[in-house]
Write a structure and sequence with these properties.
There is one protein chain. The strands form 5 sheets. The chain has a 6-stranded mixed sheet with strand order 3-2-1-4-6-5, sandwiched between helices. A 5-stranded antiparallel sheet has the order 7-8-11-10-9. A 5-stranded antiparallel sheet has the order 12-16-19-20-21, with no helix packed on it. Strand 5 and strand 6 form a beta hairpin. It is of the alpha+beta class and about 450 residues long. The chain contains 14 helices and 22 strands. The chain folds into 3 domains: about 220 residues, HUPs (Rossmann fold, 3-Layer(aba) Sandwich); about 70 residues, Uridine Diphospho-n-acetylenolpyruvylglucosamine Reductase, domain 3; about 120 residues, Phenylalanyl-trna Synthetase, Chain B, domain 3 (Phenylalanyl-tRNA Synthetase, Chain B, domain 3, 3-Layer(bba) Sandwich). Helix 2 packs across helix 7 and helix 9 packs across helix 11. The longest helix is centred in the middle third of the chain and has 30 residues.
Length: about 450
């Protein structure tokens, strides 16, 4: 049963952080019984509300009737109303999408534009909507998350709450009768040309002949599954957290660790979903474990790269570095390590350290400032010991570096000339000779 008392009790339990008296609420209102009842309840709670109505221009005179009705209703409650009117057919054709998808995009984009800081959007989704959504997800094929249905609260692009979710359509209609509320009916709801309407008008009534409390039962199950989902997510996240290692600034997962849950879709999805993958790519990720070196799977935001016995996780938006070095003494911090610079007299150097992480450069051949930057595909240099130039891309390829490590290699340059491929090879043009008097010694220290 839906009453003001039950509504406020549910609100206090489900939305304790949302103060009814001190929060501004934007109520999505169509003129149908659900949104009319929600607006009426919020008005009785003495909440600060603004009604928001979208005229999609899909039902001719009926759409005009709905707009006029909600304007009149706002006047009765003495609350502000905002109305947005748009040709949905034209929008759908322009952006090549279905009418339902277009209407949803129009609606929520406009709501987002209306929400002030701290304001909350309320929609009138109810238990019957929850039943329809869960059944649609089940019939399409879904995982655990799909069976949790419509969330009561969202805080992402939209700050949104759905306070009528536990109440059925019958509860809402009875509340309207008890409080003598009038509303309008959307004639398109009676047509079975949309999947949701078919489920609502045909399938659920047949199920109710066997299970009279189908709405309450599905709502209760969805709530239990939300709890189960939270436990599963926490368990899966902890598993992957223990397996991650950072090597040279790159998140990696040992394949031996991944194999502990090989072919387990729940664990794999728990890892890949935040990197832009789709559920259909789970099998591809499993196959990557057996792939050859350098194989990868890409999303718009990341790549999973197989290299030796690990999977490297690399962002597609890794920023390029370009740091100017003005003096020959001190420490320069880079994204993946640090450069320690010293200016020495050549006679101070009795023996040069052969490590690739140290470069000895003839200081007389430098033109300050010099630059540390990420290498580019057009770069070339003269590797120490050779007197002909080599494309840097080919040189790095010969080192058999992993694709992720190769991408982040840095160079020290003077103008367009490379002095040093950091931690790999000095340029022959900048080596010290018997005539060298001053030396710039650069020591690279990797963060990892």
């Amino acid at each position: 049963m839906l009453t003001l008392e039950n509504f406020t009790k549910h609100w206090e339990k489900k939305f304790p952080a949302l103060n009814l008296k001190h929060t501004h609420f934007l109520i999505a209102i169509s003129g149908g019984v659900d949104s009319i009842v929600l607006a009426h309840l919020m008005h009785l709670c003495k909440a600060k509300i603004t009604l928001a109505h979208v005229n999609f221009q899909l039902r001719g005179e009926e759409s005009i009737r709905d707009e006029n009705f909600v304007r009149s209703f706002a006047e009765q409650l003495n609350v502000p109303i905002k109305v947005h009117s748009l040709d949905t057919h034209k929008y759908a054709a322009t952006y090549k999408m279905g009418l339902q998808e277009a209407a949803r995009e129009i609606r929520y984009a406009w709501f987002e534009s209306l929400l002030e800081k701290g304001a909350v959007l309320l929609t009138a989704h109810h238990a019957d909507d929850q039943t329809e959504t869960v059944l649609m997800q089940l019939f399409r094929g879904t995982g655990l998350h799909g069976l949790t249905g419509i969330p009561a609260r969202r805080i992402d692009v939209l700050n949104l709450a759905r306070p009528l979710l536990p109440f059925t359509k019958e509860h809402i209609k009875q509340y309207a009768i008890n409080n003598e509320l009038t509303f309008v009916e959307d004639s398109s709801n009676n047509k079975d040309d949309y999947t949701r309407n078919l489920i609502r008008n045909k399938i659920i009534p047949q199920i109710q002949e066997v299970y009279a409390n189908v709405n309450e039962n599905i709502f209760s199950t969805a709530e239990k599954l939300k709890e189960a989902e939270a436990i599963v997510e926490a368990t899966v996240a902890l598993f992957w957290k223990k397996g991650f290692k950072i090597k040279k600034g790159i998140p990696t997962l040992p394949i031996s660790y991944f194999n502990k849950v090989k072919d387990n879709a729940t664990y794999t999805w728990g890892l890949i979903q935040s990197y832009g993958f789709k559920p259909a790519q789970i099998t591809e990720v499993h196959k990557l474990l057996e792939a050859s070196n350098g194989a990868y799977i890409a999303t718009p935001t990341h790549r999973f790269i197989k290299y030796n016995e690990v999977i490297q996780i690399v962002s597609n938006d890794t920023p390029k570095e370009h740091l100017v070095i003005y003096v020959g003494e001190g420490v320069l911090q880079t994204k993946n390590g640090s450069l320690h610079l010293e200016l020495l007299e050549a006679k101070q150097i009795s023996k040069m350290d052969p490590s690739n992480t140290i470069a000895y450069i003839d200081a007389a051949k430098l033109d300050w400032p010099i630059v540390f930057r990420t290498w580019q595909s057009t770069d070339y240099f003269y590797p120490l010991g050779l007197r002909k130039k080599k494309k840097l891309n080919h040189f790095l390829g010969s080192l058999k570096l992993s694709p992720a490590i190769k991408e982040q290699v840095g160079i020290v340059s003077v103008g367009d000339k490379i002095c040093w491929v950091v931690a790999h090879r000095l340029d022959d043009r900048f080596k010290i000779t018997p005539q060298t008097t001053k030396v710039l010694k650069i020591t690279y220290q990797d963060k990892s």
